[in-house]
Design a protein that fits this description.
mainly alpha; rod-shaped
Length: 238
């Protein structure tokens, strides 16, 4: 639209120049025709014909110039349209570049924010690593203490096992001694019963032989035998 608007004044200027040139030519012809110089009609006709030919030539030249100007104007319009199209492309590229620049700025801001977050995360991870290292050291100390306690408990378990084995052996020995003592007690109890029976029999025989003790000295020597058996049984009883 701007190109067509600018072409109208150019065309008007060209037409105005052609009109002025035609008017000037006519004025020259009229002045020449009304000059006081005496000329023949044939000469005037020849000159008029020459002027007409010149006018025709001028018209042809003017038409050619007009066509040339129109071609130049059309070329100028096309070139202007191409330049406008190129300008629009450049503007589109500039807008795209501006949008890309804005996007890059936004991306850079996002990246800076992400970098800040990552730095804070790294610092937090470092602090966590430090805390975990301290906890690991404490856990290692605790594990060493537990290992020491486990070792001591193992030794105590071995000692307890040894003491238990010894106690079981002592218990077995005590049980054996108990059985032996019970067997010994049963044996002595039987011996005691035998001694009591012998003692009671000896006492009865002594009572029966007391009246005749003065008449038989051999019987008195036999009467002391039950007493010896009784003393032996008492000595065997603990």
């Amino acid at each position: 639209m701007a190109g067509s608007g600018s072409s109208h004044p150019v065309r008007g200027v060209v037409l105005a120049l052609l009109a002025v040139w035609s008017v000037v030519s006519l004025v020259v012809i009229v002045v020449w025709a009304t000059s006081p110089d005496l000329k023949s009609s044939a000469a005037c006709r020849a000159e008029l014909q020459e002027v007409r030919e010149k006018m025709e030539g001028a018209k042809v030249v003017s038409l050619q110039n007009q066509q040339s100007l129109e071609r130049l104007l059309e070329d100028a319009r096309q070139e202007l349209a191409a330049q406008k199209a190129e300008g629009r492309l450049v503007l589109d590229r500039l807008h795209a570049a501006n949008a890309s620049l804005q996007s890059c700025r936004h991306d850079r801001e996002v990246l800076n924010w992400n970098i800040s977050v990552l730095q804070e995360t790294v610092e937090s991870l470092r602090q966590t690593e430090f805390n975990l290292s301290a906890q690991i050291d404490l856990q290692e100390d605790h594990m060493e203490a537990l290992q020491q306690n486990l070792t001591e408990a193992g030794h105590q378990l071995q000692s307890s096992s040894s003491l238990r084995a010894a106690a079981e052996k002592h218990m077995q020995a005590a049980q054996s001694q108990t059985l032996a003592c019970e067997s010994r007690e049963q044996y002595l109890h039987k011996q005691l019963l035998k001694c009591k029976d012998v003692d009671s029999g000896a006492a009865q025989e002594t009572q029966q032989q007391d009246p005749a003790s003065s008449s038989s000295p051999s019987s008195s020597s036999l009467s002391g035998l039950p007493v010896l058996v009784l003393l032996l049984c008492r000595a065997l009883i603990p």
